[in-house]
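B., you asked whether I could sanity-check this one before it goes into the benchmark set. Here's the sequence:
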Amino acid sequence: MIKERKLVEDVSGWLQVYDDGSVVRTWTGPPEIKFVTQPVPPHDEFVDGVATKDVVTDESSGKRVRIYLPEKDLEDDDKLPILLHFHGGGFCISQTDWFMYHNFYSRLTRTARVVCVSVYLRLAPENRLPAAIDDAFAGLLWLQSVSKGDSHEPWLENHGDFNRVFLIGDSSGGNVVHQVAARAGNVELNTLKLAGGIPIHPGFVRSERSKSELEKPESTMLTLEMMDKLLSLGLPVGSNKDHPITCPMGAGAPPLHGLNLPAFLVCLAEMDLMLDTQTEYYEAMKKANKEVELFMNEGMPHSFYLNAVAMENDTSVAAHADNLIYKIKEFIASQTLNSS
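And here's what the prediction gave me:
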């Protein structure tokens, strides 16, 4: 007799966990949203000014990255800055080849004139934290190995500037930016320079509800249920939201003043549920005398620029996304000038 598996957790249509340990990540919400969760195949040819390919960075583990390369522009430098990207999804859902990331990071690559390297991260609950942090840091070490000539990747060798490497991440990927930057501060990267960190709408929270969590409206990209359930599945067993990965400004995290961090651009959205704790992180970074800048998209919700439906149908959302891209471009240029 075959025992029927039972659903033990359902996260807002994004993820279902069953009593046999199996996990399903098939979108079950409104069908008009499903396309943003679909994988986009890589294409070596330039489409709308950007080519993409997937590269295996470690044969033994199967670790991979997706690379976005902009078509050559007459005004480009010989070598372009490199963005090392970490996707969001509360450590439990989404992948770097989803349409929502392909759509925005193709646009960012083309407009900001960068090479983007997006890391495929292992997902919880099968691979709880710090698995995603380990994968992200392995991505940085792979970039270093290419810069040293120990590994080879022609797109990076021919077009990437290893003296201008920036970490960038969305939502929980913003948490990864902080953690990878902190780890990198304890190692000698030699042939690679970490020039900056760009957490966008990072998933910084505390166990106690903030005022913004209680008062800001929920959105398609983030509800309180999503936040609570995904983090409970993603954090190490027995941990809560005060864990250093979700609360790097908290008492349980390494003191910020003791971390060797590059310059940071913290990008926030005024209507994000996590705005208060994100702002608290920014203020804590300033208090620790870190080089940190704040950029705010007023009136926008969490990860609005990944909502392809809103980007297509709302000119205000599209304009805010353009402003975000141009701010990122400006930050990259400013750090280039500071290091020259």
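One thing to flag: The first helix runs from residue 99 to 112. Otherwise nothing jumped out at me.
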